[in-house]
Design brief:
The complex is a heterodimer. Chain A is 40% helix and 29% strand. Chain A contains five helices and six strands; from the N terminus they run ββαββαβαβαα. In chain A, strands 1, 2, 3, 4, 5 and 6 form a six-stranded mixed β-sheet that branches. In chain A, helix 1 runs parallel beside helix 2 (54-69). The radius of gyration of chain A is 13 Å and the shape is globular. The termini of chain A are far apart. In chain A, 43% of the residues are buried. The N and C termini of chain B lie far apart (127 Å). In chain B, 40% of the residues are buried. By secondary structure, chain B is of the alpha+beta class. Chain B is elongated and about 130 Å long. Chain B has nine helices and 17 strands. In chain B, strand 3 (110-116) and strand 4 form a beta hairpin. A five-stranded antiparallel β-sheet of chain B has the order 2-1-5-4-3, with helices on both faces. In chain B, strands 6-17-14-11-12 form a five-stranded antiparallel β-sheet. The chains are: A alpha/beta, B alpha+beta. The A-B interface holds A 23, 50-51, 53-55, 57-59, 61-62, 65, 82, 88-92, 94-95 and B 243, 245-247, 288, 291-293, 295, 312-317, 330-335, 337-339, 342, 362, 366, 368, 371, 373, 376.
Chain lengths: 119, 423
């Protein structure tokens, strides 16, 4: 797995996950939002993900619940075709918000969050 | 006498002196070794407490001719901190602690001067930490009464060497304890596996008008897959296959509890949709805390009319119909534990004689075949077109799955349930 992190502001985290996202890599992903309690908006870019298993899905749900508990959300951006099929088969697309790009995902988060932290 | 003769005599005298000193040193070393041997022979190979390291401390005291000695073991996983001195009133731990803290950062022994014994006698100490896997786990020190002599480099080297021996005892004890713990865990897992197997039906029910076949294989001693069946008061046969995301004991515990809960609610005559909605509501908080979720499919069949109803929460599609005319019933709600208030949609049909229903877990459909997953499509292709018995269908799927793995171990639990109407 290749994991890249971006933090456009204090409360938002963008994760780009490439390659295999599975039981071997879930702890590294979870640590991204566990290590900073201020993070409440999470975008997970799965456009370069080639494989995702049920443990990875559980990791995304854990991130979703964490974000909602903190008053935010977790949004999936541009999932690769193989990932999209898994989301549909498991009906996970009914629980997760899925967008076609990272920019679209970021636009879903309330702008007053960013104003508050800038002000 | 010439100058050269005088020089030769002086050399000879010096050589004789050195030979004498060497003999004395050899005798002393032999004597010291004789004194050390009983202590070293009494030293256990493993150190579980200060008592097991005391022979090492005694041998250092003999080797350096020390007046007092002290041994400290920091608290470990299964043991409290321990402090031991020779004689018993040599020194209070608190008096040496600050020096121990200092020497734990050093690679050489450190010295503590004029530390008073309980009787007030001043002692000069030589202290060194016991280091295991780069962690300071204790310390050993020896002391000489003030005014006797200074510790030499030989004393320091002896103290360090013997302390390494004590560290070796601790490593051996930790390894032995670790082996015991591993054996205990393996034993507990075996019992958990037996319990899990005992509460799952070994075979399908025998019901007129239906053939029911099953194969359930955990990837390890215990598994996150489970299955079960119940004859409902309404006369329907209710069956379910579930799969907890995760491995090991937590997943197995979650699978067993969900298995039991589904069985109970189905016994109360709840239809599949209500059964899944109920267990989702019941398990949501626990699954959130444990960061788990479970997929499940529940079906209820009237063995007389062939009417079938399904509810599917995140589980791979149920196959329905006959070879080459399969219908797929996909999940209509995310897995159990994902959303607090969610319910699946009911999916209903009427089976015709010869129709089959196949439920399976992702341990089968997610077998990796090169760059791709085997998938539902691959599983369908493995079913022979003329299959007339559920056991033959299951055998065909499992044989293909084994061939795809090519001898590699199973990475995930696998379950397949097949039902034929109008047997």
């Amino acid at each position: 797995m290749e994991l890249k992190k971006e933090q456009p502001d204090d409360v938002t985290l963008v994760l780009h996950i490439g390659g295999r996202f599975d039981a071997h890599t879930m702890e590294e992903v979870k640590a991204c939002w566990r290590s900073d309690d201020a993070i409440r908006h999470i975008v997970v870019d799965l456009s370069q993900t080639t494989f995702i298993d049920s443990i990875a899905l559980a990791t995304l749900i854990s991130g979703l619940k964490t974000a909602r508990k903190r008053g935010g959300n977790l949004v999936i951006a541009n999932p690769a075709e193989a990932v999209k099929v898994i989301f549909e088969l498991t009906a996970m697309d009914r629980a997760l918000t899925v967008t076609s790009s990272v920019e679209e995902a970021l636009a879903l988060f309330p702008s007053n969050d960013k104003l508050q932290q800038n002000g | 006498m010439t100058n050269s003769n005088k020089t030769a005599e002086a050399y000879e005298a010096r050589i004789r002196q050195l030979e004498t000193e060497l003999e004395e040193m050899t005798a002393s070393l032999a004597q010291a070794w004789d004194q050390l041997v009983p202590f070293l022979q009494a030293t256990p190979q493993q150190a579980n407490s200060t008592g097991d390291i005391v022979p090492v401390l005694e041998s250092i005291m003999v080797a350096v001719d020390a007046d007092v000695g002290a041994l400290y073991l920091a608290p470990g996983d299964d043991r409290p901190a321990e402090w031991f001195t020779i004689p018993s009133n040599a020194v209070a731990f608190s008096d040496l602690q600050k020096y121990l803290d200092d020497c734990s950062q050093l690679t050489q022994p450190c010295r503590a001067r004029n530390v008073r014994t309980w009787t007030g006698a001043p002692i000069n100490w030589l202290l060194t930490p016991i280091v295991v896997s780069e962690q300071v786990v204790g310390a050993i020190g020896v002391g000489l009464a003030e005014g006797r002599r200074d510790f030499s480099a030989y004393d320091a080297r002896t103290l360090m060497r013997m302390t390494e021996r004590a560290a070796g005892q601790i490593v051996a004890a930790d390894l032995a304890a670790s082996r015991v713990r591993e054996a205990q865990i393996a034993h507990a897992m075996q019992i958990a596996g037996l319990i899990q197997r005992s509460i799952q039906p070994a075979t399908g029910p025998r019901i007129a008008g239906l053939q029911v076949g099953i194969d359930w294989q955990p990837a390890a001693t215990v598994g996150g897959d489970a299955w079960g069946w119940v004859m409902q008061p309404s006369g329907h046969l209710a069956c379910y296959v579930l799969d907890v995301a995760g491995k090991g004991l937590p997943a197995a515990l979650a699978a067993v509890s969900l298995h039991t809960a589904l069985k109970m609610v189905l016994r109360l005559n709840l239809p599949p949709v209500d059964a899944i909605e109920t267990v989702n509501h019941e398990f949501y908080d626990a699954y959130t805390d444990a960061e788990l979720f479970a997929t499940a499919t529940v079906i209820a069949i009237d063995p007389v009319t062939g009417e079938i109803e399904q509810a599917n929460a995140g589980h791979p599609p149920t196959l329905l119909g006959q070879p080459e005319k399969w219908q797929q019933w996909e999940a209509t709600m995310p897995p159990i534990g994902v959303l607090p208030d969610s319910a699946p949609l009911p999916q209903r049909a009427t089976l015709h004689p010869g129709d089959m229903v196949v439920c399976y877990s992702d341990g089968l459909s997610e077998i990796e075949t090169g760059q791709r997953l085997w998938g539902t499509r691959g599983l369908l292709d493995a079913i022979p077109p003329d299959v007339a018995h559920v056991e033959h269908l299951i055998d065909a799927v499992l044989t293909t799955a084994d061939r795809l793995r090519n001898g590699a171990p199973m990475h995930d639990d696998q379950t397949i349930l097949a039902i034929r109407f109008g047997a």
